[in-house]
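Dear H.,

Thanks for agreeing to be a second pair of eyes. The structure we're designing against is below in token form, covering all 360 positions.
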């Protein structure tokens, strides 16, 4: 799973409004720059890259929602782009999976898998046509220009708990980060019990989305907490991946089951049944088995987190409130004038470590 590239010159001690604009403009620029690559049908990863970029942009907009004027961002157009990218990407993934499974299947079910692949190839061509229209040059240019115009006046002065009471100080980007990551962490923690309900597909899908949002937020604010935050993001990505693979299996299971049911109803009505049911049953058996594997992976990782206090350690990092020295202004002798190490008779608080998580 790709890691987000850090935004250049991001300073966690700068005023929040300034850095929020910087982040959102960088995210929009990244997404728009991937347009041509997304329309290169010889490389399916182009669509995936632009889709991920659009997700990171919308995730950041969600993070900063309390700090933006309502209705200031063209969200509907961003959602339309994300939907079109997702439609193509879904078909790409399906066709890649079917090609791999066809190589493993016997001749009894192979032709049926090929017939299903032909259906999805037709759907992909249609989805590609819609995507090409959705991200046509004029539409992307208009969206980018409107976004850049609106974002410069979209931020508002926050009145929430992140402002230091009575201090009259400007809210910093690091303070916003502590609040955003804290909220995302709380949401994931409260929904965590869903992992113990293996048949509750909607709840597990919601848990995956919450894990993705937390991961994106941790990656975005990693410069404010340093290397340990990056390790935490990698650990969360593992959990998100397992739940994502599980969700893909759930979609397959629902669609294959619906196909079999529709065929049974057709046969009951005296109509000719679809001739490739053997392939559908074979695929259904495969994805039911594969789902169990991915569920077990997610369950084991969540149990590991609870046993080792992973989420509690992430919370402790936020509560420690330590900002990397690199982000702080320099003193006259080249030291960090506001850093703990630059103050006499004070010691730097020890941050929780994620180094024991080998996967990070």
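And this is the sequence the design step returned. I haven't edited it by hand at all.
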């Amino acid at each position: 799973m790709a890691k987000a590239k850090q935004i250049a010159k991001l300073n966690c001690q700068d005023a929040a409004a300034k850095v929020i604009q910087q982040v959102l403009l960088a995210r929009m620029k990244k997404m728009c720059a991937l347009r041509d690559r997304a329309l290169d049908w010889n490389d399916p990863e182009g669509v995936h890259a632009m889709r991920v970029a659009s997700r990171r942009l919308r995730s950041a907009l969600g993070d900063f929602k309390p700090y933006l004027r309502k209705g200031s961002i063209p969200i509907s157009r961003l959602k339309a782009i994300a939907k079109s990218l997702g439609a193509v990407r879904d078909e790409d993934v399906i066709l890649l999976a079917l090609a791999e499974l066809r190589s493993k299947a016997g001749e009894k079910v192979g032709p049926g898998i090929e017939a299903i692949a032909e259906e999805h190839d037709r759907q992909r061509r249609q989805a590609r046509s819609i995507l090409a229209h959705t991200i046509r040059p004029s539409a992307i240019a208009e969206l980018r220009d409107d976004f850049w115009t609106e974002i410069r006046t979209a931020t508002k002065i926050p009145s929430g708990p992140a402002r230091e009471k009575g201090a009259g100080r400007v809210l910093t980007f690091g303070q916003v980060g502590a609040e955003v990551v804290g909220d995302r962490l709380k949401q994931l923690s409260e929904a965590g019990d869903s992992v113990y309900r293996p048949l509750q597909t909607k709840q597990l899908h919601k848990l995956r989305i919450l894990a993705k949002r937390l991961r994106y937020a941790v990656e975005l604010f990693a410069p404010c907490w340093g290397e340990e935050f990056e390790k935490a993001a990698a650990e969360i990505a593992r959990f998100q991946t397992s739940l994502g693979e599980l969700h893909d299996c759930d979609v397959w299971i629902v669609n294959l089951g619906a196909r079999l049911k529709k065929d049974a109803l057709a046969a009951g009505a005296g109509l000719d049944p679809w001739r490739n049911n053997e392939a559908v049953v074979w695929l259904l058996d495969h994805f039911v088995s594969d789902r169990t594997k991915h569920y077990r992976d997610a369950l084991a990782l969540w149990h590991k987190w609870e046993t080792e206090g992973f989420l509690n350690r992430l919370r402790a990092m936020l509560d420690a409130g330590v900002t990397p020295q690199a982000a702080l202004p320099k003193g006259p002798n080249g030291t960090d004038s506001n850093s703990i190490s630059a103050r006499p008779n004070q010691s730097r608080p020890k941050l929780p470590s994620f180094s024991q998580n080998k996967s990070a």
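Two observations from my side: The radius of gyration is 24 Å. DSSP finds twelve helices and no strands in the chain.

Warmly,
E.
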